[in-house]
From TrEMBL:
<keyword id="KW-0028">Amino-acid biosynthesis</keyword>
<feature type="domain" description="Tetrahydrofolate dehydrogenase/cyclohydrolase catalytic">
    <location>
        <begin position="4"/>
        <end position="119"/>
    </location>
</feature>
<keyword id="KW-0658">Purine biosynthesis</keyword>
<dbReference type="InterPro" id="IPR000672">
    <property type="entry name" value="THF_DH/CycHdrlase"/>
</dbReference>
<dbReference type="GO" id="GO:0006164">
    <property type="term" value="P:purine nucleotide biosynthetic process"/>
</dbReference>
<keyword id="KW-0486">Methionine biosynthesis</keyword>
<dbReference type="GO" id="GO:0005829">
    <property type="term" value="C:cytosol"/>
</dbReference>
<dbReference type="Pfam" id="PF02882">
    <property type="entry name" value="THF_DHG_CYH_C"/>
</dbReference>
<dbReference type="GO" id="GO:0004488">
    <property type="term" value="F:methylenetetrahydrofolate dehydrogenase (NADP+) activity"/>
</dbReference>
<keyword id="KW-0368">Histidine biosynthesis</keyword>
<dbReference type="InterPro" id="IPR020631">
    <property type="entry name" value="THF_DH/CycHdrlase_NAD-bd_dom"/>
</dbReference>
<comment type="function">
    <text>Catalyzes the oxidation of 5,10-methylenetetrahydrofolate to 5,10-methenyltetrahydrofolate and then the hydrolysis of 5,10-methenyltetrahydrofolate to 10-formyltetrahydrofolate.</text>
</comment>
<dbReference type="InterPro" id="IPR036291">
    <property type="entry name" value="NAD(P)-bd_dom_sf"/>
</dbReference>
<dbReference type="GO" id="GO:0009086">
    <property type="term" value="P:methionine biosynthetic process"/>
</dbReference>
<dbReference type="Pfam" id="PF00763">
    <property type="entry name" value="THF_DHG_CYH"/>
</dbReference>
<comment type="subunit">
    <text>Homodimer.</text>
</comment>
<comment type="pathway">
    <text>One-carbon metabolism; tetrahydrofolate interconversion.</text>
</comment>
Length: 292
């Protein structure tokens, strides 16, 4: 069994990003600038946004955080998004999800200028992704592709099972893995809460990507020997506190699944770190006007 080490890969990729940011500063006198909008004080979102901001500083980007109380109205948020769309000093911005129930996340996502949509959630970016056109790719699926590429894991012609069809992970992941690209060219099955006989399906998988949000969901009896396992789970156990916050668990029963695998991502230290690198890559692309 080999660990897919998100810490190592993300540090390597961040070195390259930092070099390109320094070159940009030298040439143009400005740094790539990412803005994050955070509504309310969801514990997970606080941690992720803080990490995104910290990583921007590490690679030489400018970062700004705009905070709103959870009582902010949808109109106020949409007005701020329009302001950020127009502001030429900002290369890209994200609105951290989830949002409070009174705000429609689809409206928010579509209000963001697709040219600044470094999360890659806007329908124009998702449509261009599906067509294999240059665009911002959604950060978590993009990070998983970078990880597969880094380790040279063969995906062409492999059976890939994606568990979970969320807008931000499972659905785009299934498209990227099926696309005519490398990594990609896999035979993909996208499974979800209505899927029947999941174990029959996962037992045929060469690659399993689990993004269901349930601790220990993928168990050893569901995995064939030699499979590649990508665990997107970020389940916080509020009963177990560590010095850096609540203990994190993936969606995979790591202890029992790992011995059967050829490769597996740990949690923490796997996909989560890659998501942040993808956001940095997208922000650099936005600053360089690489796609639009
Ligand atoms: N919530 C969980 N993951 C993400 C992400 O990648 N971007 C945003 N904006 N919100 C999230």
């Amino acid at each position: 069994m080999n660990l897919l080490d998100g810490k190592h890969v993300s540090e390597e990729l961040k070195k390259q990003i930092a070099i390109e940011a320094a070159e940009m500063l030298e040439k143009t006198g400005r740094k790539p600038h990412l803005v994050a909008v955070l509504v309310g004080n969801d514990g997970g979102s606080e941690t992720y946004v803080a990490s995104k901001m910290r990583n921007c500083e590490k690679v030489g980007f400018k970062s700004s955080l705009i905070r709103y109380d959870e009582t902010v109205t949808e109109v106020e948020l949409l007005n701020k998004i329009e302001e950020l769309n127009q502001d030429k000093s900002i290369d890209g911005f994200i609105v951290q999800l989830p949002l409070p129930n009174h705000i429609n996340p689809d409206k928010v996502t579509e209000a963001i200028d697709y040219k600044k949509d470094v999360d890659g959630f806007h329908p124009i970016n998702l449509g261009r992704m599906q067509r294999n056109l240059p665009c911002f790719l959604p950060a978590t699926p993009f990070g998983i592709m970078l990880m597969l590429e880094f380790y040279g894991i063969e995906t062409a012609g492999k059976n890939c099972v994606v568990i979970g069809r969320s807008n931000i992970v499972g659905s785009p992941m299934s498209i990227l893995m099926a696309r005519n690209s490398n990594p990609g060219n896999a035979t993909v099955t996208l499974t979800h809460s209505k899927t029947k006989n999941l174990t029959e399906i996962t037992l045929k998988a060469d690659i399993i990507i689990v993004a269901i949000g349930k601790k220990n969901y993928l168990t050893a009896d569901m995995v064939k020997d030699g499979a590649v396992i990508i665990d997107v789970g970020m389940n916080r156990e509020t009963s177990e506190k560590t010095k850096s916050g609540y203990k994190l668990f993936g969606d995979v029963d790591f202890e029992n699944v790992a011995p059967k695998c050829s490769y597996i991502t740990p949690v923490p230290g796997g996909v989560g770190l890659m998501t942040i690198v993808s956001l940095l890559k997208n922000t650099l692309s936005a600053a360089k006007k690489e796609f639009y």
